[in-house]
From TrEMBL:
Pfam families, sorted: fn3 (PF00041), PHYHIP_C (PF19281)
GO cellular component entries: cytoplasm
Domain of life: Eukaryota
Protein name, per record: Phytanoyl-CoA hydroxylase-interacting protein-like
Function: May play a role in the development of the central system.
Domain (Fibronectin type-III) ranges: 46-155
Family: Belongs to the PHYHIP family.
PANTHER family attached to this UniProt entry: PHYTANOYL-COA HYDROXYLASE-INTERACTING PROTEIN-LIKE, PROTEIN CBG15099
InterPro entries, alphabetized: FN3_dom (IPR003961), FN3_sf (IPR036116), Ig-like_fold (IPR013783), PHYHIP/PHYHIPL (IPR042868), PHYIP/PHIPL_C (IPR045545)
Amino acid sequence: VFVPQCKHIDSQLLQTADTTKTLNRVCFPGTDSADAGIRDQDNLPVPQQIQISNVTCDSFKISWDMDRRGRERITHYFIDLNKKENRKENRFKHKDVPTKLVAKAVPLPMTVRGHWFLSPRTEYTVAAQTAAKQPDGEYSVSQWSEIIEFCTADYSTVHLDQLLQKAEAIAGRMLPFSVFYRNQQREFFCQARDAQCHCMLPAVKDSSGSRGSPISGKLEGIFFSCNTEFNTGEPPQDSPYGSYRFQIQADILFNQNTNIYFGDFYCMYTSYHYVILVLAPDGSKGDVFCKGRLPALDRSNNPFLTCSKEAEGSPCFRHAQDVILEVIYTEPVDLSLGTVSQIRGHQLMSLSTLNAKKDPSCKICNISVGR
């Protein structure tokens, strides 16, 4: 039986249950066990009114109230922590064994931190009980507290900076490009023309990429691509999204009035790696959203997507060769600013990133917090 060990609980070293017998009793809150290694103790106070605070993507603080009676006997806290979602979706933990934490009794609140059992933006249930370690090494325990729910947070800017550094390491040399493009089915562009005042409108970003990215399910924008084929310097003719393509000159979306942000870095169990960038006109709603949440990039000097000027003053645009860029533009785009035409290539649906799940085992694009 595997019992995950918390990386950090305040300054106290987290311990796992001493014996498998102890685990059997600890694993099932609200039930009694015939196991002789655990002894219910009437004078041990039961945690009440549990409070969760200071929640990050991989840590939280927990505290509770309890009666004074028997408090002096407490040596340890048992904490039952489980993902609220279907356990079958958690391939890294046996579906029948919850995560149990055994911590020395310390002043409350105490911090629970551990990147390999806490994931960003994930709902958990938690319960607690107090315990007294006996001379023979076994425990007397209180009844379990009520079960409460909480949700971990998005990546902080510190975590995104770590992800940015990993993406920078593989970006590769820069290649010139001149247009942004968006591939879709014909019906998409017909609707934009007929029902949306000839405009493509921002939509909320899906859940693709890193689970902790602050833009998923929150940022509104329009996805564009800018990658080119190495041998032609032109956009590829194949697409996973549709046989019609809108093209727009790069300087219309990306210029000296456009701020650029790093949003995510991920792969989908393949050798291809994706970088999500956000282009937001200065002062726009999208720009306000990104400030303080995402790492800002220098528009003329970064390893992914640059806008600079040639000696004669004309704009020059370059994109990274060794990653696939997904560019989110945060404002509506009028179709009259570009052209729509049918492409000749194939629809490679296997390359779609719609709601794509990140490979949590990839050493290239994962950082030291939950995936």
